[in-house]
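Exercise 4. Each item below gives a protein and its sequence. For each, produce the structure-token representation.

Item: DinB family protein (Sungkyunkwania multivorans).
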Amino acid sequence: MEAQIIEEFKQNAIYRLDESTRMIKRALSEIGEAGVWVRPNHVSNSIGNLILHLCGNIGQYAIASLGELPDDRDRDAEFNAMEGLVKDELFEKLDEIVNKAKATIQYATAEQLTKKREVQGFTFSGIGIVMHVVEHYSYHTGQIAFWVKQLVAKDLGFYDGVDLNIKNKN
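Answer:
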């Protein structure tokens, strides 16, 4: 039963990561290159900054910490960037990091998922790390979607063709 619960947890985490990736890809398809590095104001981040930040955070938490690899993150650089990678390069970088994280999660052992470790000054088990990665990715996916909607004044159609009014079945 424990192995079944662990597998269910991993599959749901991976599904959530895939959903955020799908939504970011869809959002990016609606903007031009100029929109990638636009900041709404001096205290906010551009879409490019958010994607770099997601790459750094997912790499630090899921790949380095859960995967027990060296942590080489430069967090300040994620937010200081004002230009650089184009839209396709940013998405490819994100997709590559997310795929590495998904593989790390998929192959994590029960011991890795329950082991406590320090990440960014916080103490988490491997399960806590996975939850953080999924939650953090989803949070910034929402920010990216909101900012794209502001730039293009258009619904992004994340759930086109899906009836979201269907009632739950027990």
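Check: Strands lie at 116-119, 122-125.
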